[in-house]
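Q&A log
Question type: sequence-to-structure
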Amino acid sequence: MAGGATWVAGIALSKATDAIDARLNLGEALGGMILLAIAGSLPELAITITAAAGGHLGLAAGNLIGGIAIQTLVLVLCDAVASGQDTLSYLVGSLMPVFDALLVIVVVVVTVAGGLLKPTAAIGSVSPASIAIVVLWLLGMWWLNHLRKDLRWQTDAPGSHPGRTHRRKRQAPSGHPFDGHSTAYVVLVFLGASAVTLVAGVVLANTGNTLATRAGINGVIFGATILAGVTALPEISSGIAAVNLGDYQLVMGDIFGGNAFQVCLFLVADLIAGKPVLPHQGAANSWLGGLGVILTAIYAAGIIARPRRFGRLGVDSVAVLIIFAFGIAGLVYVAQ
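Response status: OK
Response body:
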C-alpha cells in the first residue's frame, strides 16, 4: 500500500513541481534545481529519517547508496520505450548530462571515501564527509547552472532530439500540467503529495525493516534492492512520461540530478542518528557505491559514443543490465 501511495503521489508531485517551476520561473535558478532535487527525493528522505531514528543505519545507507544504482537502471526502461530505432543516449544530443553524470561520480566517490573515516572523526554528530558532499553538490549545481547559461562550445549530433532541457520550458502540445488552475491550487497539490510521500516513506522504512528481518535478508541488501526499487517508482513514472513527450535530455538530467542529491541526505542521517552514519556503511555499501559509479560512467560514455540499438536496447543499456546483475551477485557475497 505504501508503494502504491508512493507511485500515485510521485506522479502528482512531479506534475506540481513542473508547474511551480514554470510559473515561478525557477528552472534556470539554483533554487529551482534544489526544489526539483528535494521533490524527487522525498521518499528517500522519509526512509532516511525513519531508519536513522530507529538505529537501522545499514538500511538507511543501503537505500541512499544502493538507490543510485537502481535509479540509474530506470534509464534502461526509458531506453526501451524510446521511440524509433535510436537509443536514448543517441537522442540526447547534448553533453550537459555528461557533466551531470560527473557530479554524481564526484559525490559518490566522496561518500565511499567517507566510509573509511573513523567514527570519532566528527564535527559534533556530523561526519566531515557528509558536509563535504553537500558543499560539493551545491558548488556543482552552481557550476552547472552557470555552464548552461554560458556554453563555450557547440555540439553537432545529427539525428538527435533532446527536447526540453529545463522543466520550465513549455511542453508541446498540451502545455504545462494544471493549466487553468491557480498557483495556490498547484502549491496545495505539491504540499499534499509531499505529505503523502513522506508518510508512505515512513511506512516503507518500518515495514521494509520488518520484512527484511523476518526473511533473514541483510538490511543493506534489502535497502539497496527492493526498498530502493520502490522509492524509484516516481522516477520511473516521470521518466517514461518525459520519454513519451520526447524530452530525452530531461530524462538523463533528472536521473543524474536526483542521484547526485540523494547522497546529500547522509547529513540528515547524521543529525537524526546523533552520530556519523558513513563510517558504519561497511563493505557492502562501498561495493554499491562503486557499482553506481560504473553504471553512471557507462551512460555518460554512451551519450558521447551514441550507440545504436542492440535489440530493444542500446549497447550501453545492455552493458548496464549485465554489470548490475553481476554487481548484485557480488553484493550478496560481500554482505555475507
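Response note: The first helix runs from residue 2 to 23.
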